[in-house]
Every structure is written in C-alpha cells, then in structure tokens.
C-alpha cells in the first residue's frame, strides 16, 4: 500500500506532490462511501482521536468530527475556550493530559503559528493542523484543490485566482502552496494593504483589479475579510470594499466564459460575494463542504497507517 512521506499533516509545504495525489485518490474512495446509504466504514475502530480547538470553529470542527466518526474512530472533543487553558494551563500540559488518556491522533486548531510543529516534537501522537494562526490550514487547501480537480478535470495548467484578505488568511497561504505543487497558475487580488509584501517570492502574481482577475482565471476563490485578526483598519469601509472586491452576478454575466466560484466559508453575504453568486450554479461552495469530509477522512486514514 502506498503511504504518505510525512507522519503528521502540519502544512502543505511539507507534502510532496505524490502525497497530495495519494490523498486525492483516497478521498475519491471515501467520497463513494459517504454517498452510500450506510456511510460508515470500520477502518479506524481501534483509534482514538482528540479534537483540540483553541480557537472557535464550527465548520472545520464538525467536518473533522464527521470524518472521524465515518471511519469508526473514538472521538474526544476538547474546546479550549471553556477549558483549563483559561486557568493558565500550557499547551504541553493540556496535550499531555489528553495523551495520558491514550489518544492516537490530535487534530488541533491554535492561534499561534507553528503550534502543530511544536506539538509534534513533544508528544507521541499523529498531529493534524486544523489551522494555526494566520499561517496554514492544510486540509482546507486540499479540499479546495480537490474541488477544482473535480470541477475542471485537473489542477495542472489551470488559472486560479484568490481574492480578498490574503494578509491574514491561512487558507490563502496553504492554497498557494497546494496549487503551485499541482501545477496551477495563481493570481492574488485584493486591496494592496491586504496583500503580503513579498508575495512574488511565492511564485504568484498580484492584480489589483477584480474585473481583470476574473477575466484571467478558470476558478476564483473568494476569501472573507478577517476582521477578528485585524488590529487596525486596512481599508476605508466595508461598503467600499464590497464595491471594489465583492463578486456580483453582473461580474459573471460580463465574462465571455464560465468560471468556477469558490469560498472557504463562513460567507459574509453582500461583502465579498453576493447571495445571487453564492447560490448560483457556478458556485461549488457546498461541494467544497462535502469534499471536506472526504479529504479529512483520507488524511486521517493515511496518518493512522503511520501509528505504530
């Protein structure tokens, strides 16, 4: 059986192209499983997985939990917002306590970049990074690239635009790494203040005009403005942002081709994307959600094979 070259999923930058292809092939299989009347497989019956969320998350946490339960794993949920972390317990103490309960795998979201890497060096469990600060969100990038492959036949040679708050987005960084590894061209679009300074070093282009960007691309990934990560104002008003960078039905009608519209959620309807676009046939937002479960099943299944 083919296996991953890594023992943890800490970021897309640590994966090879072969790793990504293996995850996609495995997800194809699990996608069939979740569309059956009986959606469970007994693959991980002896594995215990702890979901540690030190930041609020609804969709990612539910998607991981569903993936784990579809694989018949035992699941422990831990929300740090209502835990001993508030009382001053350190990350390592928290995890050691959870590992003392004999946990095989930890899925973790944490506000500090590199938290997953730190953890992988100190605890004897497989680690899945479910988002670390504004750094990486590898399973989101995998499900986005997988959704592009499903809609357009492949990722190689495709033109993919990422629009919005690139500066604060772990989704953007992971997507850039994944898309480049799979042979896509990537263009970033958004207010200059929300684009990282050394973005060309990642091998991507920047285009300030939304109209030119969507004319160029085959698929566009619309990111929300991450107000919760901003310590200052990066653009005048939300209304002005929506006028310049909000994707509307008029934008899509003005094109001489059809493009695929994506969004990692949660959507700010009327800001980065209008309801008409979000609910249009060109939008694959709900496919991304379904693919998220299949991709996370694949990642967990492949990492579980590494548990000795």
What would your notes on this structure say?
This protein has 308 residues and is of the alpha/beta class. It has 2 domains: 141 residues, Rossmann fold (3-Layer(aba) Sandwich), CATH 3.40.50.1370; 151 residues, Aspartate/ornithine carbamoyltransferase (Rossmann fold, 3-Layer(aba) Sandwich), CATH 3.40.50. Helices cover 38% and strands 14% of the residues. It is built from 11 helices and 9 strands. Strand 1, helix 2 and strand 2 form a beta-alpha-beta unit.
Keywords:
308 residues, alpha/beta, Rossmann fold, 2 domains, five-stranded parallel sheet, four-stranded parallel sheet, 11 helices
In short, what is this structure?
With 308 residues, this protein is α/β, with parallel strands linked by helices. The chain contains eleven helices and nine strands.
